[in-house]
Design brief:
This protein is an all-alpha fold. Helices cover 84% and strands 0% of the residues. The longest helix has 37 residues. It is globular and about 50 Å long. The termini are far apart.
Length: 193
């Protein structure tokens, strides 16, 4: 009987890791776009990873704690993610079309925070399913947040290194802006499914 419980717990851990990887996908893509387009210094790379990790870890825990009270937010979550990602994507596109010496937008705290919230609202909904698992909520949050932070740090660092090989970062701002707009449209499609 004890071995069955051990296997069940292992399955929950594997499920949580797979869930964490899937939730981290949007944040990872956004971090890669930031790395290639803005080539942030190491401090800002760590800030990006921590910001995305904290929000991804916090949102499912909030979703689990709020439970049924959160159902009203679930209706609006995709609209919020759509709006936030669209704004950041459009700003990145505008920046990419600008003159290289006149960069309009910087990768600042507000932009990173907006990206973190936008890429983590889907994790809020997943929190409702975490209550069915036997693992403590803090383990869920730390696992989701930790995996997201590590993936985002790797993504932004690798992308920044690749971006340095090219002389024109505006191209990457165009690509990054387009990718973020596609992610925004994905959330808009979910509003009607």
């Amino acid at each position: 009987m004890r071995s069955d419980r051990h296997i069940y717990t292992n399955m929950e851990i594997v499920t949580l890791i797979c869930l964490s990887l899937s939730l981290a996908a949007d944040a990872f893509v956004t971090a890669v776009c930031d790395g290639m387009a803005y080539r942030p210094k190491i401090g800002k790379r760590i800030a990006i990873a921590l910001s995305f990790g904290v929000m991804q870890g916090l949102m499912p825990v909030l979703g689990a704690l709020l439970g049924d009270k959160a159902l009203g937010f679930l209706d609006a979550q995709n609209y919020l993610a759509f709006a936030a990602l669209l704004i950041v994507g459009v700003l990145m596109l505008i920046d990419g079309f600008g003159k290289p010496e006149k960069t309009r937008s910087k990768l600042g705290v507000k932009t990173i925070a907006l990206q973190s919230v936008a890429t983590s609202v889907d994790a809020f909904a997943c929190g409702l399913t975490l209550v069915t698992m036997k693992l403590p909520l803090w383990v869920d949050g730390v696992t989701v947040g930790g995996i997201t932070a590590v993936l985002c740090l790797v993504g932004v660092c690798c992308a920044a290194a690749i971006g340095k090989k090219f002389s024109n970062p505006e191209r990457f701002k165009l690509i990054g802006g387009a990718v973020l707009i596609v992610l925004a449209l994905k959330h808009l499609v979910y509003c009607f499914i």
